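In response to the reviewer comment on reproducibility (Comment 2.3), we provide here a single inverse folding case reported in full, input and output, so that an independent group could reproduce the run without further information from us. The C-alpha cells appear first.
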C-alpha cells in the first residue's frame, strides 16, 4: 500500500516491519494467555491462612506479582504497536500535506527504524519471560 505524494512519489508501507509485527502479535497474546493461566494456577494453590507458617504463601505471592508484571509488560507491547501505527499515520499525513518538507519524510524512516529496534527488544523480552517461567 502506498500513499501518493506529488508526481510519482510514494511513501510505502514498511512491509518487513508489518510482517514482523504480524508474526510477533500472536506470540505476545500467547504470553498474556499463559500468564493468565499461571496466575490462576498459583491463586488456586495458595492455601488459606490457618497456621502461623506463611513462608510458602509469601513466595507464591511474590511469584504471582512477577507473573502479573510480565502480563502487564506484554500488554504494553501490544499498546506500543498500536501507537506506532497511529503515529506513523499522522506523520504520513503531514508528508502528504507538506511534501516539500523533507524532515517529515525523514521522520517516517526514523519512526520505522525506532519501531524495528523496539520490536527486537520485545522479542528478547518475550524470550526472557518464557525462560523465567522454566
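Designed residues, in position order:
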Amino acid at each position: 500500500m502506498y500513499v501518493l505524494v506529488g508526481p510519482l512519489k510514494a511513501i510505502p508501507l514498511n512491509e518487513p516491519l508489518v510482517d514482523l509485527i504480524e508474526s510477533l502479535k500472536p506470540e505476545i497474546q500467547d504470553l498474556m494467555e499463559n500468564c493468565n493461566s499461571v496466575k490462576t494456577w498459583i491463586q488456586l494453590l495458595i492455601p488459606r491462612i490457618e497456621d502461623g507458617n506463611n513462608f510458602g504463601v509469601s513466595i507464591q505471592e511474590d511469584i504471582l506479582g512477577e507473573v502479573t508484571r510480565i502480563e502487564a509488560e506484554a500488554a504494553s507491547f501490544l499498546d506500543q504497536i498500536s501507537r506506532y501505527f497511529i503515529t506513523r499515520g499522522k506523520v504520513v499525513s503531514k508528508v502528504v500535506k507538506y511534501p516539500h518538507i523533507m524532515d517529515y519524510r525523514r521522520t517516517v524512516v526514523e519512526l520505522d527504524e525506532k519501531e524495528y529496534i523496539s520490536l527486537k527488544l520485545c522479542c528478547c523480552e518475550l524470550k526472557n519471560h518464557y525462560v523465567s517461567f522454566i
